[in-house]
Amino acid sequence: MKLEDVRNILILGAGTMGLRIGLQAAISGYHTVIYDISDRSFSYARKTQQQILDFLVKNNKLSAEQCPEVLSRIRFTTDAEEAAHDADLVSESVFEDLAVKKDVWLKFGKICPPTTIFTTNTSYLLPSSFAAETGRPERFCAFHFHDVFDAVVVDVMPHAGTEPWLVDLLMELGIKLNQVPVLVQKENPGYVFNAMLVALIGAAGDLVTSGVASVEDVDKSWINNFHMRLGPFGILDNIGLDTAWHVTKSLPDAKSKRFAELLKSYVDAGKLGVKTKQGFYTY
């Protein structure tokens, strides 16, 4: 399979990352289907996509005349069979939970055409841990986006069974999607950037849960010393505190367990970050 054979892209999950990957795919000329088990997230996804398009137009990255055409290439559905029937490539962005991902891939591995390429946008799980569930592990690879429109790195991380041609194709596709592809030569939790980011956020979490400093002062220290726009907790609000909790709760050390408890208190209160307009900060 070659890059030009990819015309239809299926996004599994209409959440924070899925809606962004789907929008960028449509901007890049691909017919895009965004699938979710419920249509409750679709209105938020459409609204957010329009806001992103408005931002791109305002910053001369796209013309206003292009926007209707871009949106015409995106379709939302809760019908799995309809979503899968002509997919050339699948990008999965469901919850960062191994059991959930296995269930999703068991389902779509059976209903997608045999030529379909499978990719996962998992932030921390290793693709080898659920490659078998796809039914075609040789055509499966991690293809991990960051923000898509601001942080434009996409990680290509094969597992031991990924065929080499797929790695080459995804490196090309990353460029077509206006990203900077980074090859992760062997499986590594957190890829490259996230591995560094987890260390930063883990240290920030330990400072707060140990009573050394407040959330606000930890962020002030980082922002003003490194001239950054966001501190560790502002970054977490953008990632989503539910996603951060799913990653952190799986870590075995005592510091991570304490931090996971703090994150869960926000998740239980429905404070998930930017997407709910309240997390560590109010938006």
Characterization of this structure:
- This protein has two domains: 3-183, NAD(P)-binding Rossmann-like Domain (Rossmann fold, 3-Layer(aba) Sandwich); 194-276, N-(1-d-carboxylethyl)-l-norvaline Dehydrogenase, domain 2 (Orthogonal Bundle).
- It has an eight-stranded mixed beta sheet.
- The chain is globular, with a radius of gyration of 19 Å.
- With 283 residues, the chain is of the alpha/beta class.
- Strand 1 (8-12), helix 1 and strand 2 form a beta-alpha-beta unit.
- Helix 1 crosses helix 2 (42-58), helix 7 (193-209) crosses helix 11 (254-268) and helix 10 packs antiparallel against helix 11.
- It has eleven helices and eight strands.
- The chain has helices at residues 16-27, 42-58, 67-72, 80-84, 98-111, 164-176, 193-209, 215-226, 232-239, 241-248, 254-268; strands spanning 8-12, 31-35, 74-77, 89-92, 117-120, 140-145, 153-157, 180-183.
Q: Main attributes?
A:
eight-stranded mixed beta sheet, Rossmann fold, N-(1-d-carboxylethyl)-l-norvaline Dehydrogenase, domain 2, single chain, 283 residues, 2 domains, alpha/beta
Secondary structure class reads alpha/beta
Helix and strand element order: EHEHHEHEHEEEHEHHHHH
Query: Helix proportion of residues, in percent?
Result: 40-55%
CATH class of the largest domain: Alpha Beta
Tell me the name of the CATH homologous superfamily of the largest domain: NAD(P)-binding Rossmann-like Domain
CATH architecture of the largest domain: 3-Layer(aba) Sandwich
